[in-house]
Amino acid sequence: MDATMPGGSMKAPPVVLLNHTMNGDTLMPPNNNSKDDPSILIDPVGCDPSPLDASFDSGGANSLVDDVDGVTVSDDSDLDDFDVIDMDYSPMEIEESIAETKIAMDLFYNNQFEEAKAYIKPLRNRGVYPAFGHGMIVYMQAGLTFTADEVKVAMKSLRECSVVCQRFRKNHSVAASISHIVVPPNYDKYSEEECHAELIYAECLLLRAVLTFIQDENFVNFVRGGWKVRCCFQCYKECLRILNSRKWKTEELRAQFDGGVKLGIGMFSLFISMLPARILRLLEFVGFHGDKQYGLSCLEQSRVTGSLRSEMASCVILAYHTFLVILLTNDECDLKYSMKVVESCLEKYPNGLIFMFYNARIAEIQGNLDEAVSIFEDCVNMQHAWRQFHHACFWELMWCHMLSLRWDKALIYVRLLKRESVWSKCTYTLFNAAVLEMCTKTKEATTLQRDVNELSVAKLYAEVPTLKMRLAGKSLPLEKYAISKSKKFAKIGPSPLPGLELMYIWNGFSVLSQKPELFEPITRLVDEALAEIADYTYPDNKALIYMIKGVCLRYTPNSDGQHLLEAERYFNMVMELDKFIQFDRFLLPNTLVELALVYLETGRYPEARRLLNRAKSKYEKFSLESRLHFRVHSSLAEIDRRTQQPPTDSPSHFGNGNNGSDKSHSRRGSEVNPLTWVRQLLK
């Protein structure tokens, strides 16, 4: 085969994941560590080499460890896919690599999803940025479905990206790697390509870790995924030191690197800070640290760099404020800041579906449901290449109509989701049953419609347990909740307010409280159920009505605070039924949290803290337990803030690295004292 390409350029040799020879079940590393050797080397820069990597690989002669993080290719077909990537052309300069990737990402954000993928795919072996751009597009496509085929394609693309990164990363001898633990390296000796390869390698590790958790169900892969995350975290800290201690060829290259580092560290710091205290202490013990304000600050710095990651940072910020804050905390999302972010993105991409989606989501949170419906419908009509994106819009359209009590229209979208989406048919079936129940309760429904709907509802509830799926070897919490509602229906029949129960779980009352015209019909519906409470025999149904009535009162504006006293009374009525509730045990800890929020609002902080700790410690193994623990964690943090308790985390955990001699370069120096951690855990 001719070694030259059209145009006379030389064809680079194939890149091999790892030159190896087999000696029984032992993998032998390559002998040639030269920079010019096309083979991918094991490179410990940015993450600690560990004997765990070898112990994870238990596949004998058919297994292959492809890099330092211990990813294993476990069958012959995978070896065919990943053992060799044929490099057909010379590498790009880093500036050209960034420019080409920018073109592809512009296509992507302008809704030309397939065109973007087709443009970047032929370039993915020529530089780290095209490789990562292609991997990101495929990853986002897989993230909309999480089907096995899509996940496998995404994993393959990210592995290819890791191979390209390894080709460009700085190679170190074992002696040099050990010496760097004591003496920081001179980062000015790193080329621009080597610095950016280190950053993108960290980004690939993080994305591959997520897919590892999803793709495989055995314990070894969970450990491997966790190890990847830790390696990624160490890589980002290494990149932060590189950012602050070296001289850059151009300001553009520094801005691109800065955007990526701040995005990664910001995500780590923000999301770790949201975790419940017990998990947070464990993560601190192994070297992770979280700080919400520092994380948000890093993400904002990444957003304004104008780099390739600016839009990614914007998406993370918007996802945090418009989804995570509402679903997992009791905080108010910063809608003013979110509007500023989304408007800056729409100014650049006026018809970008991703940013239009977030714009509609902000309108929904503000209670402008008709405006939100109009934008979501535009999003559906503007592209048809990625049907999965339609499903995300259908989900939000369903919620807009549910919050408006337009149950018949909500039913249209939940049926579409149940028929088309593969994400969680079990959950969609529960929603279908609940919305249909609410249609049955409307005054407009005829007797015949009620009879037909009741039969359909019973059939749907019976179908729920048969649709259970597993993700990362675990049942989904929402599906566990759906199955518990199915069992309850089979035992005691219909629930009094199934649609409003779902609204509460998704924190829909915070949206309804924004507009009196939305909140008043909900209040009337609850009052009607309360008037008929004597008709409900089972304590579970009575407790649900009392709790939702209390939540309505907590959100009712009232200058004299009388509504909070009434809310407290209804929450206490729920707790009086503690010993009698059989199926909906989740109501009890949630009611304690709601009562604690009443105390928090009235300044009774010790009582609020006591109830929150009681909700966390007394009740266990109830539906959506983890979600409640997130809410408890955020409420305790709010009490600490109001009572001016000292913060437990600090941005200094990441080090400033201003002069390249950051003492936190030692990996041991970034971790907490084990004895201190044990004392905290015992407390």
Which features does this protein show?
two-stranded antiparallel ribbon, 8 strands, single chain, two-stranded antiparallel sheet, mainly alpha, disordered C terminus, disordered N terminus, 683 residues, globular, 30 helices
Shape: globular
**Helical stretch count?**
30
**Termini Cα gap:** 69 Å
**What is the residue-mean pLDDT, rounded to a whole number?**
80
Q: Count of DSSP E strands?
A: 8
Q: What proportion strand?
A: under 5%
Strand order of the largest sheet: 1-6
Structural class: mainly alpha
Query: Biggest β-sheet: count, sense, barrel?
Result: 2 strands, antiparallel
State Rg.
Answer: 27 Å
Low-confidence stretches: 1-88, 647-653, 655-683
Proportion of residues in helical segments:
55-70%
